[in-house]
């Protein structure tokens, strides 16, 4: 007999609030962070330019990542913009970027008056598809900006092969991919620069904040450290500013929290992975669900837990599925960054940038007048309509995951159409998918959205 859904008046599966990144219930906060902040306040040095904690945070993060250079900034968006200031594209130059990402990725490009060129995704993991890159490269292409979405790594080997062949800079957006590994290497260290976010929802947090890491510096006529600090060479005894750059200082308070959080990285990552693997196993028999895909020999660190669903197997659309899951007490959303890719958001679609100019999309410096219409990236558009996004955090226990799985099974059992299916996909113990046949199966039955 069909169990009455909460959205129809039935009893919700989850009656108590789950741990969340929105407060301490889903975060590894403790006495260490409190003491660190108290010490900063007692010393009275809150500003980066006079203190030592920001520099220490940079050194320790660089050491953890195996990078030669690290600069701490005020947000993940600031990290990406700092990297773009370092790259120093001409107005109208083009940056290749996936359409499944946070708007901050594209804001960083537009703030430097470059043009985002959207490259469609691999439906396995919703990262930039290397096979789609070459067709978007032009004489104005300056860089490739892959995003390791949801904590799953983009396929960096072919991306780097294209970049080196075409002499393109590579900036990795690792905001959602802390300590994610691609074939044994940490993401953020594979390209020319890696950008991280420490916003409240990230694997470790300073409330807001970010970091840029690199093994290369002093290219394009500028040093990385000057690119977030007004182009100001502070070692000089008089004021000077070498080039136009923003002020994206991190505070000593943020850095103090960050230093304490670094020690908790391993526990955070392990807890997220353990709970994600448990949910994957609990949903293994749900034939209408396709769990998240991770490339072979890679390790995902689960910023979100996402799954796609087979629309042809369901009686209702994604909006109804998500509304029903929310009614069962499970916070989730349809699609990321929403039900449409970034280029269909009004800011980009209607070119709401610099006054009424349409700059840089319509600027004389651009190679052509740019437009971003439906159908530009078909795989990304399908993904936005068939992906259920669950916020994930290190506070989730086995009991919580059992409730999450029960809520999902309840809703899918109620809305699933009758009929045969090919059966669930099977990942290995590390959560990775075979590269060929099952990657094809991962997308079968998902066209009817």
Present the secondary structure layout:
Blueprint: H1 31-43, H2 53-65, E1 69-73, H3 76-87, E2 94-97, H4 103-111, E3 115-118, E4 121-122, E5 127-128, E6 141-144, H5 156-166, E7 169-173, E8 181-182, E9 185-186, E10 193-197, E11 210-214, H6 252-262, H7 265-282, E12 289-290, E13 298-299, E14 304-309, H8 318-327, E15 333-334, H9 346-349, H10 378-386, E16 387-391, H11 398-415, H12 437-443
Parallel strand pairs: 2-3, 2-6, 6-7, 7-10
Antiparallel strand pairs: 1-11, 4-5, 8-9, 8-13, 10-11, 12-14, 14-16, 15-16
Approximately how much beta-strand content do the residues carry? 5-15%
Structural class category: alpha/beta
Which strand order spans the largest sheet, edge to edge or round the barrel? Answer: 1-11-10-7-6-2-3
Cα gyration radius (Å): 22 Å
**Unreliable segments of 5+ consecutive residues:** 420-427, 433-449
- Kindly report how far apart the N and C termini lie: 28 Å
- What gross morphology would you assign? globular
Helix content: 25-40%
The number of domains: 2
Structure description:
With 449 residues, the chain is α/β, with parallel strands linked by helices. The chain has two domains: 6-24 and 265-339 and 378-443, Aspartate Aminotransferase, domain 1 (Alpha-Beta Complex); 29-263, 3-Layer(aba) Sandwich (Aspartate Aminotransferase, domain 2), CATH 3.40.640. It has helices spanning 31-43, 53-65, 76-87, 103-111, 156-166, 252-262, 265-282, 318-327, 346-349, 378-386, 398-415, 437-443, and strands at residues 69-73, 94-97, 115-118, 121-122, 127-128, 141-144, 169-173, 181-182, 185-186, 193-197, 210-214, 289-290, 298-299, 304-309, 333-334, 387-391. It has a seven-stranded mixed beta sheet, with helices on both faces. A four-stranded antiparallel beta sheet has the order 12-14-16-15. Strands 9-8-13 form a three-stranded antiparallel beta sheet, with no helix packed on it. Strand 2, helix 4 and strand 3 (115-118) form a beta-alpha-beta unit. Helix 3 packs parallel to helix 4. The radius of gyration is 22 Å and the shape is globular. The model is unreliable at 420-427 and 433-449 (pLDDT under 50).
């Amino acid at each position: 007999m069909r169990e009455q859904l909460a959205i129809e008046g039935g009893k919700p599966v989850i009656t108590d609030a789950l741990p969340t990144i929105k407060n301490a219930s889903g975060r590894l906060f403790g006495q260490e962070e409190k003491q660190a902040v108290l010490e900063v306040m007692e010393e009275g040095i809150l500003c980066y330019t006079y203190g030592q904690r920001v520099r220490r945070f940079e050194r320790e993060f660089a050491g953890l990542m195996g990078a030669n250079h690290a600069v701490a900034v005020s947000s993940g968006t600031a990290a990406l913009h700092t990297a773009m200031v370092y790259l120093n594209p001409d107005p109208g130059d083009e940056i290749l970027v996936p359409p499944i990402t946070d708007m901050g990725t594209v804001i960083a490009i537009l703030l430097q008056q470059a043009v985002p060129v959207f490259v469609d995704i691999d439906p396995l993991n919703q990262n930039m598809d290397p096979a789609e890159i070459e067709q978007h490269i032009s004489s104005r292409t300056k860089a490739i900006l892959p995003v390791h979405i949801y904590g799953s790594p983009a396929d960096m080997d072919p991306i780097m092969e294209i970049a080196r062949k075409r002499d393109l800079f590579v900036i990795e957006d690792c905001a959602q991919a802390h300590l994610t590994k691609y074939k044994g290497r940490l993401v953020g260290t594979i390209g020319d620069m890696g950008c991280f976010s420490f916003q409240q929802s990230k694997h470790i947090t300073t409330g807001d904040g970010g970091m840029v890491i690199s093994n290369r510096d002093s290219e394009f006529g500028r040093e990385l450290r000057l690119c977030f600090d007004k182009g100001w060479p502070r070692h000089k005894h008089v004021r000077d500013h070498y080039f136009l750059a923003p002020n994206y200082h991190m505070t000593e308070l943020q850095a103090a929290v960050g230093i304490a959080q670094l020690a908790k990285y391993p526990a955070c990552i392990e807890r997220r992975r353990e709970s994600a693997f448990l949910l994957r196993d609990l949903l293994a028999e749900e034939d209408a669900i396709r769990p998240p895909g991770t490339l072979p020999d890679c390790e995902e660190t689960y910023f979100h837990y996402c799954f796609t669903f087979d629309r042809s197997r369901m009686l209702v659309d994604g909006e109804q599925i998500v509304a029903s899951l929310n009614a069962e007490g499970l916070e989730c959303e349809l699609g990321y960054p929403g039900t449409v890719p970034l280029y269909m958001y009004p800011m980009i679609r209607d070119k709401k940038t610099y006054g009424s100019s349409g700059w840089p999309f319509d600027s004389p410096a651009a190679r052509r007048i740019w437009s971003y219409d439906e159908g530009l990236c078909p795989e990304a558009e399908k993904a936005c309509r068939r992906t259920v996004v669950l916020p994930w955090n290190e506070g989730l226990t086995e009991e919580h995951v059992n409730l999450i799985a029960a809520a999902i099974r309840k809703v899918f059992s109620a809305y699933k159409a009758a009929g045969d299916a090919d059966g669930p996909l099977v990942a290995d113990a590390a959560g990775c998918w075979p590269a060929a046949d099952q990657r094809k199966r991962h997308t079968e039955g998902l066209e009817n959205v």
